[in-house]
Design brief:
It is a single chain. By secondary structure, the chain is α+β, with helices and mostly antiparallel strands. The chain is elongated and about 85 Å long. The longest helix is centred in the first third of the chain and has 26 residues. A hairpin with a 2-residue loop joins β13 and β14.
């Protein structure tokens, strides 16, 4: 009876050894959830068992909300290790092994650990691959990164952020906030984009991207016809010009606010400006149907928040007048929606405060014209003041001008991250 007993004990030992070997092999499979002690630690380091770990996946991009997963493999793609949130109850240290895509743990005792993974979001430059339509890649980035990422908001009227119910509701993608990365180099192929060629993206409308000149246009861009100049107020002005050329909305001797016939439109923006750009760059600008009917003073400024202005100015203008041309100016609603969403419940006549100014990338700190006219007075058009609010003035006076236009839908992304130092390059 002694031999069978010894054989039984020997067999048990062999089985234990085989089991341990299998566990070691399993723990060294980089595709599985494994825990490895750092080789610099002492030999009494202990590995935690799988039931001592909780793995958390972000529920949605940029939501900061996480849910437990029962996955038995470390995420290989689509997620990134969140070092700040991942932690253990008894102080064990967790690090991510980027080469083998697994967690490494330093521990001297048994522990309960929580490992967090965020949804990986490609940079806008990664999404906007070469030869890809600029409008579609911006829309794709918004979808991947989430509404409001990089200051780009989808105006479908169904956002989850504050004042999302105040969106335009036109399914556009608009940049909003203090200083989003929405710079574009337009009109130059120089390695360092000249300041005069810096533009910014107002938004994506259908398959077209709408731009506005970053700083005010000067004589080299718009010529010397129908203009004067003024020294900007250093308290407000954010640009780099020592003197800002001011252009008449209609002309020094004209009081008409009919956009189709004014000199600023026909001779300056769609004459001199396009000629200076040259045919190659001018061909990238789409011929666009602009809403130039305008609306009343009360409907644009008094008690009018951006959504109301958009409705009165674009959706239901007082006069259903349109005009097809390449270059125009910003709409009043463009300016209103360039402020951070928390400001969208503020009337544009009250935009002249630090909160609205500091949170609106389109505000430049000098008097400038918009394309929007007063429908109840043929002598007036709307302007943005140097302090940031919107009001109106006679069209035979002169103020700053920033050309605005829509790019053709075939304009594609080439390079850049959209920052001022690395603006988007297009072709």
């Amino acid at each position: 009876m002694e031999k069978p007993k010894k054989l039984f004990i020997f067999s048990g030992i062999v089985i234990c050894l085989i089991t341990i070997a299998l566990i070691i092999i399993n723990f060294n499979n980089s595709d599985k959830i494994i825990y490895e002690s750092d080789s610099t630690k002492t030999s009494d380091n202990k590995m935690v068992s799988s039931n001592a770990l909780t793995m958390m996946y972000e529920a949605g991009a940029n939501t900061g909300e996480y849910q437990t997963t029962t996955d038995t493999m470390w995420p290989q793609d689509g997620y990134v290790f969140n070092e700040q949130l991942s932690a253990c109850e008894n102080g064990s240290e967790l690090t991510w092994d980027y080469e083998n895509k697994r967690i490494l743990m330093q521990a001297n005792t048994s522990d309960k650990c929580y490992v967090y993974f965020d949804i990986y979001i490609s940079t806008l430059a990664e999404v906007c691959t070469s030869e890809k339509n600029l409008a579609s890649c911006l829309a794709e980035y918004n979808t991947l990164a989430g509404d409001g990422a990089e200051g780009l908001y989808y105006h479908d009227g169904r956002g989850t952020y504050a004042n999302a119910d105040q969106e335009a509701g036109d399914n556009s993608y608009r940049y909003a906030g203090a200083d989003p990365n929405n710079y574009v180099c337009f009109g130059s192929d120089e390695a360092t984009c000249p300041a005069d060629n810096l533009y910014r993206i107002i938004g994506v409308f259908g398959d077209q991207v709408k731009l506005i000149k970053h700083d005010y246009a000067g004589e080299s861009t718009l010529g010397t016809a129908q203009h004067g100049s003024r020294t900007p107020n250093s308290t407000y002005y954010k640009g780099s010009l020592s003197s800002i050329p001011y252009y008449y909305w209609s002309g020094s001797s004209s009081n008409s606010n009919t956009w189709s016939s004014i000199t600023l439109n026909t001779s300056v923006l769609n004459g001199t400006y396009l000629d200076v750009l040259g045919s190659t760059w001018a061909s990238k600008i789409a011929n666009h149907t602009w809403q130039v009917g305008g609306n009343t003073y009360a409907n644009i400024t008094q008690s009018a928040i951006p959504k109301t202005v958009y409705t009165n100015e674009i959706t239901s203008p007082a006069e259903a007048t349109t005009y097809s041309v390449k270059v125009g100016l910003m709409y009043v609603s463009d300016y209103g929606y360039a402020a951070s969403p928390e400001n969208w419940n503020t009337t544009l006549s009250n935009y002249a405060n630090d909160t609205n100014r500091n949170n609106n990338w389109m505000y430049m700190g000098a008097y400038e014209w918009t394309i929007t006219r007063r429908s109840d007075n043929t002598n007036y058009a709307f302007r943005v003041t140097d302090s940031g609010n919107v009001n109106n003035l006679r069209v035979n006076l002169n103020y700053g001008v920033r050309p605005s236009f829509y790019l053709n839908s075939n304009v594609s992304y080439v390079s850049g991250d959209g920052s001022q130092n690395s603006p988007f390059r297009i072709q």
